[in-house]
Design a protein that fits this description.
This protein has nine helices and nine strands. It is α+β, with helices and mostly antiparallel strands. It starts with a helix and ends in a 10-residue tail after the last helix. Strands 1, 3, 6, 7 and 8 form a five-stranded antiparallel β-sheet that branches. It has a two-stranded antiparallel ribbon with strand order 2-4.
């Protein structure tokens, strides 16, 4: 059993190494992804009992990342692992970074969002003259955020943050389409413990930094509108992270409200983990290495 686990683990490392050495670094489009800080905070805090968020003094849609992307794929990424993030290089633009590209999540690593975005996406964007260095990449992201004032676009259309109201995708879609001058975006929602929140809005750019339609950034997407919000009828646009602090069980109509407990879920997870076989763990590890997805807050499409 131990030998099987070792062999599976070794194969996963070899597979990951081969992918790293042969991957295609070209890209077709750049995706400016902006996220709503309260949704990001709610998602982060709900994903771990010790997870905390930084204070959000002025809530605006801000940059998650600027992602060079191949049509229909989540690629390329990590184009130069030797090109490390250097905080000092961003000192001349730190005011803009704090305003347009802040990190809401508090993690153990300083500058965790910026480090991740540069290492995974910035090193690939460096193929272009306008984003050929760390400071140029982040400066361009801040510049594009100023061009795409999603908070203002939505407010003009009457879509404002609220802990009571809900919105449809059409409400947001029409406002963003007007803001982009008719270029089709990609609008995402996230479901957290049964509640749906708008999370990210993607606006796409050509390599010469002209807005283009986001059609084709993910395979199999069609229809009039695009994005994960299509999975849901209506969603919340939260005006604070506190809006999710107290959820009430609706198991019995008219019953006294009470806080939902995670103890049952945690117990189930523990039991499931203990029940996994060595081969199952190895397969899960290989899938994790392959996907490199969902770091709770840092993901692409």
């Amino acid at each position: 059993m131990i030998l099987m686990l070792f062999l599976a683990f070794s194969l996963s490392l070899v597979s990951a190494s081969e992918v790293e050495s042969t991957k295609d670094h070209h890209f077709d489009v750049l995706i400016l992804t902006q996220h709503w800080p309260y949704t990001t905070c709610i998602d982060w805090e709900e994903s771990g009992s010790t997870h905390k968020c930084r204070e959000i003094t002025h809530a605006n849609w801000t940059v998650h990342g600027l992602w060079p992307t191949q049509w229909g794929k989540i690629a390329p990424g990590f184009c130069n692992n030797s090109w490390k993030f250097d905080h000092d290089l961003l000192k001349p633009i730190m005011t803009d970074m704090s305003l347009y590209w802040p990190d809401v999540e508090m993690r153990d690593q300083p500058d965790s969002l910026w480090t991740h975005e540069w290492t995974k996406h910035g090193t690939c964007a460096a193929q272009l003259p306008e984003t050929n260095s760390e400071v140029a990449y982040f400066s361009k992201g801040c510049e594009l955020a100023q061009e795409n004032r999603i908070t203002d676009w939505l407010e003009t259309a009457g879509v404002v943050p609220s802990n009571d109201a809900t919105y449809s995708l059409e409400d947001v879609w029409d406002a963003v389409m007007k803001g982009t001058g008719g270029m089709r975006p990609h609008i995402d929602c996230v479901k957290i413990d049964g509640q749906v929140f708008i999370s990210e809005i993607k606006v796409c750019y050509s390599k010469n930094f002209s807005r283009v339609n986001c059609d084709g950034i993910k395979s199999g997407v069609g229809g009039h509108m695009m994005g994960k919000c299509l999975r849901y009828g209506r969603f919340s646009y939260p005006s604070s992270a506190d809006s999710f602090s107290y959820l009430y069980s609706a198991d019995h109509e008219g019953s006294e409200p009470h806080l939902l407990s995670n103890s049952g879920m945690i117990g189930g997870i523990v039991c499931t983990v203990l029940a996994l076989s060595a081969v199952g763990l190895a397969v899960g590890y290989m899938l994790f290495r392959r996907s490199r997805r969902r770091g709770r807050g840092y993901e692409s499409l």
